[in-house]
Amino acid sequence: MKLRTKYIIFVVILHLLALGLSFYIFDKDRVWFIISEVFIIISVIIAIQLYQQLIRPIKMLLQGIEAIKDQDFNVKFLPTGKHEVDELINVYNHMIDALRDERTRQEEQHFFLEKLIHTSPTGIIILDHDNRIQQLNPKAAEILGLTEKSLVGQEISRIENPLLTQAAGLKAGETITVKPDGINTYKLQRSHFIDRGFQRGFLMIEELTAEILAAEKNAYGKVIRMMAHEVNNTIGPVNSILQSALRTDSLWQTQTDGQLNNALQVAFDRNQNLNHFMRNFADLVKLPPANKKQTDLNLLLKAVIELMQIKAQGKNVQLLFNPGPKPCIIAADVQQLEQALINIVKNAIEAIETEGVVNFDIEVKKRLLTITDNGKGITDEESAQLFSPFFSTKKDGQGIGLTLVREIMLNHGYEFSLKTIAQNRTVFIINFN
């Protein structure tokens, strides 16, 4: 039963009893009966006024509660002129002002945070309490190569993605750096925040490829320039002396078998090889900007295959390419791209131990080149080191072939990847868009 109902019932019963008692007591004395009736009427009027004064604040409080429930913080009450009620109204109005300011501040902060997350160059994935993806920004979807619709609601440990697989094992506060394809480098960091008293996690995926490549190139560039300088300073004078000695036949008249002459020639040839070796490294550092021109990828690839046929036949490797009827026109620096393709095909042939096949496939509409070999493949440990300077899986490798390929691809702005997708199936993909 409501308070005002109780109050009305109490006042009615009380005045009925007073009316009955006044009639019973002053039944014979009309004057006192009339006086008692007047007092009862005055009491009823006072009770009604008290009712109005007491119930009105309660009604206002109820209206204020409804407004708070509806999150309408614009409802305020005017003073009534009564001290107690006005005190209550002042407290309520002050509370409403504070709530409205707080909501405005939270909405501004929420909008700013949403905007910051949406435009952040770092991929951000927000998880719910069950470790499922609740929200992610466009950068995270771009890095993962998946759509937001396909990710939201999925548990990260069950999504087939190398970055999320690594992130699933992270604890709050942990950070790792991963290189899933041997080219791009990412920093994964897991942290948490408190949401309504419960801890929730989020992931940050930061792409470090550009910064690492720049620092890496700067580091090995300095080393190569220093090595080239020292080698050239030594080789130049030594070769000059050797050539002079080889041209002066009178010095070697006593050497009837020509052994000393042969030794000098060997030394000269080795110096030339060393000079060529250092020039390869120097070319890696001095790679000029790509002079892009319209060229037919079919014709360029046919020329590279013809050039590599002798090397392929030496290992009984078939180079299979069936160009389509339509040309595949791309914008490229022909010399640089040709050198990159030669290195790619050379590596594919050398990955095959005895007999095998290297397939070339061009998707004209997608402007995509796929080079597939059935060699021994790339291990996970090797995949993490691919395209790194001075790293090679070959016994006598220099470690500059794939590095040069990487520099040429980046110089052109092409997307590329190299990975073993199945046993005896390694694929190099170049996207020319």
From TrEMBL:
Protein name: histidine kinase
SUPFAM superfamilies, sorted: ATPase domain of HSP90 chaperone/DNA topoisomerase II/histidine kinase, HAMP domain-like, PYP-like sensor domain (PAS domain)
Listed Gene3D superfamilies: 6.10.340.10, Histidine kinase-like ATPase, C-terminal domain, PAS domain
Keywords linked to the UniProt accession: ATP-binding, Kinase, Membrane, Nucleotide-binding, Phosphoprotein, Transferase, Transmembrane, Transmembrane helix, Two-component regulatory system
Organism of provenance: Mucilaginibacter pankratovii
Subcellular location: Membrane
Reaction equations catalysed: ATP + protein L-histidine = ADP + protein N-phospho-L-histidine
HAMP domain segment(s): 52-104
Enzyme class, UniProt record, top EC level: transferase
Organism ancestry: Bacteria, Pseudomonadati, Bacteroidota, Sphingobacteriia, Sphingobacteriales
Domain PAS: 109-154
Keyword Transmembrane recorded: yes
InterPro entries attached to this UniProt entry: HAMP_dom, HATPase_C_sf, HATPase_dom, His_kinase_dom, PAS, PAS-like_dom_sf, PAS_fold, Sig_transdc_His_kin-like_C
Signal peptide segment: none
CDD domains per the UniProt record, alphabetical: HAMP, PAS
EC number, UniProt record: 2.7.13.3
Domain of life assignment: Bacteria
Segments passing through the bilayer: 7-26, 32-51
Domain Histidine kinase: 226-433
PANTHER family listed in its UniProt record: PEROXIDE STRESS-ACTIVATED HISTIDINE KINASE MAK3 (PTHR43065:SF10), SENSOR HISTIDINE KINASE (PTHR43065)
